C-alpha cells in the first residue's frame, strides 16, 4: 500500500475481490497507523478512522490490538524500522552517529517525538500500556541496538568486558532523557558529544 | 520540626504564640510534604492534609504553590537535597558512584521513585507541570551535578574539552531511562558499569 500517493483519508486501493491474506491486512494497518503518527501525531488516531483507511473492520483491529496504545506502538515501530535501522559500515562511531541523528530528526522534527514521549508518560500510570510499550516497542529496539553493539564488540571496536545493555541507556537513554525533561535540547552537537563521550570516555589523566 | 518523631498525622508542635516567620512556615511545609512523599508516595498528598499537618492555612499553601504538582516537586527537592548531595572527596569516580547509589536507593526502595516517574509522565501532557518540574526540580539538580563535574574537570579528572551537561544525561539520564522504561533494572552493578563506562569509555583498540 502506497499511502503516500493517495489523499490521506482515501480508502486503500482494492486488489481484486475476496479476502486479503491476514498478513497483508495487518501490514496495511501498520503502514496506515505509522504514516498517521509520523505526519499528524496521535490526537486523531482512532480505531474508526484506521478501520476506514485500511479497509478492515473495527472487530479485526480490536482482535489484533486491544487498545489504541498497542495499535499506536505497533504502527510506530513499523514506521521507524527503516529510518532507524542500524547500519553496519564497519565503523561503529559513524554508524552510531548517523543512527542517533536519524532518531533525533524523527523525535524533534516530526510528530513522532510527541507520540512517543506521551506514550512513555501515560505508561507511568497505566500498567497495560507500560507492558505494551516494552513488548511492542522498546525491548525490540534495544535488541536491535544490542546486536549492532555486539558486532562492534566482536571486531574489537567496543571493549570485551563492556555490558552493551548499559551502553544503550548511555546513548538512547540519555537522548530520551532530554526529550522527556527538556532542560537541554537534542541537537546534532549533543549527539556527537554523546557518541564521543561513550566511546572515548570523559575521564582525564 | 522533627516529623520523624511524631505520629505521621499529628499537628506540628507549636512554638509559643503568635505568627511564625514565613520562612519557618515554608520550611515546615516542605519538610512535611517531602516526608509524606518518601514514606507514602503522592496518592494521599492533598492541600487539606498538608495544611493540617504543617499547621498553615490552605490559602497560604495555594499562595506559594499553585498546584499539587508544584507543592510535590518543591517538597521532594528538599527531601532529597541531603541524601542526594554531591560529595567532594577529591575522587570523582567514588563520588559519582556513591551519589548514584543513593539515588538508586531512593528511586527503587522508597515511594519516591514512583512519585518522580509519575510527575515526569504527567508532565508530557501538562505544560505547567513540565515547567514546574524543570524550575523546581530538574534544572537545580542538573546545576548541582554540573558543579561537581566542573570541579572534577578543574583538577583534571574529566577531560577539559568535555561538555559536562552531556555527562549528566549519560549518568542520571541513563538511570532515569531504566526507571521510566523498565526493560532492564536499576541495580548496583548497573551504577558501577555506568560510571566506569562514562569515565573510561567503551571503545576498544
Automatic annotation (TrEMBL), chains A, B:
Cite the InterPro entries for this sequence.
Homeodomain-like_sf, HTH-type_TetR-like_transc_reg, HTH_TetR, Tet_transcr_reg_TetR-rel_C_sf, TetR_C
Q: Name one GO molecular function term.
A: DNA-binding transcription factor activity
Cite the Gene3D superfamilies for this sequence: Homeodomain-like, Tetracycline Repressor, domain 2
Q: Which keywords belong to this entry? A: DNA-binding, Transcription, Transcription regulation
Instruction: Give the DNA-binding residue ranges.
Output: 46-65
All copies of domain HTH tetR-type, residue ranges: 23-83
Q: Where is this region: Disordered?
A: 1-23
- Superkingdom of the source species: Bacteria
Q: Does the keyword Ribosomal protein apply?
A: no
Protein known as: TetR/AcrR family transcriptional regulator
Q: Which organism is it from?
A: Cellulomonas shaoxiangyii
Classification of source organism: Bacteria, Bacillati, Actinomycetota, Actinomycetes, Micrococcales
